[in-house]
Every structure is written in C-alpha cells, then in structure tokens.
Input
Amino acid sequence: MQIHRYEKLWFGVSLLLIVGFIATITYGAVGAGIQMVGDEGGTVDPGEIGDYEIRDGTTFSDIQEPQATHVEGDSYEVAVSSQQFIFNPGTSEPIQVPENSEVTIYTSSPDVIHGIKLPGTNVNTMVIPGEMTKITVEFDEPAEYGIVCNEFCGAGHETMAGNLEVVPEDEWEGDA
Ligand SMILES: [Cu+2]
Output
C-alpha cells in the first residue's frame, strides 16, 4: 500500500503529540510531588470544630494557636478555623512555625465553603463545613507566606487573608 510522504509525516507528528500529552499528565501526577488532599481528616460537626480530636487527649482548640504546636522531631501542628472572613489564627496575627519543620495544618469551616492557599507552597485546598482538612507542608528556610481564601465565600471574601511566618531556628520561642 502506498502512503503519501506527508501523510506519514502527520501520522508521526500526531503520534508524538499523544505520547507528549500522556507524558505531561504522568509527570504532573507523579513527578512534580503534587499530592491530592485525602479524606483521612474525617468529618466534624461544623458547630463544634474546636472539639475535633487531633489525637488522644488533644483537641482542635488545644492547638488553635498562632504558634505551631510541637509534636515530635521536626513535626509540628496547627489548627486553623477558616471562616467568614478570617483565618483564625492567621488573620489577626501571623501563624508562626520554625524553619526546617514539617507542619500539619488542620482546618475546617463553621459556616460556608472556603479555600486555603499559601502561594509558593503545596498548600491549596478547599475547606468544607463538616469535613476536617488535613494537609502537610515542609518549611526549609525562614520566609513569610500569605494565606488566601480562594473559594468565593460571601461579601467579605476578598478581604479573607492572613500570614504565616517561618521563624529562624535561633529565634523560635515555641517548643522544639
Ligand atoms: Cu473564604
């Protein structure tokens, strides 16, 4: 069978494109270190997120402080209420974590759907009333990050923002 030279060429080019598409999708899914937020945080009564049990004997409200709570080694935890139209903590004073830490953020909403995003990190997820969102992020060096809500959540949505400070180890005043 005779196939025209150009037809062969286009056949080759389109095959290459398909392989390219599959390669970029595969890279995005596994190579770039992007993880989906799981549902292991479980559910929570939106009216009582403070009572959510982080682990035995420690509730959400116990670690809902601007200064991250030390767990063990370099792991820390912080609980944030994402609500109309603040992050508590985060908005009125910055969340503080030490450098070289692995921080697990627990967040939920007592009212409507919000988002939590720390530009420049892997933190970017929805915050849904009734669900506890659990996300882990590593901070290797001192820095300041903004926190923004990226789900439209009402009339004050555009003001819903906060800050997170990664404090140098020698200036860290919390537990280590
Ligand atoms: Cu919001």
